[in-house]
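Here is a typical protein record:
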Amino acid sequence: MNIVETVLYYIAKIFTNTVFVISIYYLGISFFGIVRIKNKKIYKNEKRFALVVAAHNEERVIKDIVKSLNQVDYPKELYDIFVIADNCTDKTAMKAREYGAKVFERNDKEKRGKGYALEWMFNKIFEMEKKYDSVAIFDADNLVSKNFLTEMNKKLMEGYKVVQGYVDSKNPKDSWITGSYSISFWTTNRMFQLSRNNLRLSSQLCGTGFCVDTALLKEVGWGATCLTEDLEFTCKLVMNNQKVGWAHDAILYDEKPLTIAQSWWQRKRWMQGFSDVCSRYFFKLIRKAIKDRDFIALDCALYTVQPITIILIGCSMIISAISYGAQALDIISSVNTAYIFSPSKLAILTILIGFLEFIYTPFILILEKKLDLQIFWYYIIYPIYSLSWLPISIQGIIDKDNKEWSHTEHTRSISIEELEKAN
């Protein structure tokens, strides 16, 4: 081989081997989410909750989340609803009060974003005369199942200090974008979150639909004010020897973006936040994993490099296409360009991607009782959504130091009764 072929060979080998190892790792873990392990023990509803809804100009949907929280099957004296009207210029605060929430209005043009708003509210809760065992976090566009607090109470009584609920979709059939989002969340809930819970690893916080033990929150501090405050706080918890529990039956419905433009900017913000958190926590988690022989820390570290993983997988797919093209050219010419790449590994990866795309993921959707004709159609075009992650991840890494918060507008007003009837 000449120098160019040698360089290409080793670059391709690094890409394919790295992607191969990561893919096998995640696939292996995902299998542990196929079976649900239920704790049938019955616990008394006794944990006291402060339910915190972060809202910025959400007058169209704020009443729905407040009504939904008021209707949960849990003793009314054991929870209170707090709405943060964060830098609002509309009627969010007024409408939240109309439906019975305790509203705290915050105006701070310098420290903008959900992370700052939550930290501000937590400090107020710590100073209240009434004390709460746990603080639960929601977004203004959410709705919750009526058993949500009962399931959270159960996991807290099992001994978890932090618990993430099942993030479902409020509007899965509004467009192919909302359908793609929904497929992504449904499969993640089963293949990523439930599997880790079954393996006694740490699940990941999703930004909404989770609760945190108040004493722990006060002890370790929030301090999560980046664009992905949920990932930042998860890393902080793991660094403090805590792990996130998973409540598969505590269902929260989240509004998904309707258009490719809304989706693009939201996911770009996520990748910016991932890149930022990765740069600050990856090596800390790796050091902890090695020093303490802590597999939870290693697993969390691997999760933070998601933008890089996506780029590696994208590059591997491109290399795979070039490799097969090169092999075709070899039939015509004597140039040994196909030797540059690693056909056997690429072939295995291609088969693996096909398995995930056409067999495994539909199987998971069936397990979750989500697959119907319309969702199946969205699944057929789902690869378009998946491929868009490559340029989004590249943009996220490039702009990781841009901390400007991008608000996603929410317009889908629907009651929890309508949603549960549809499901």
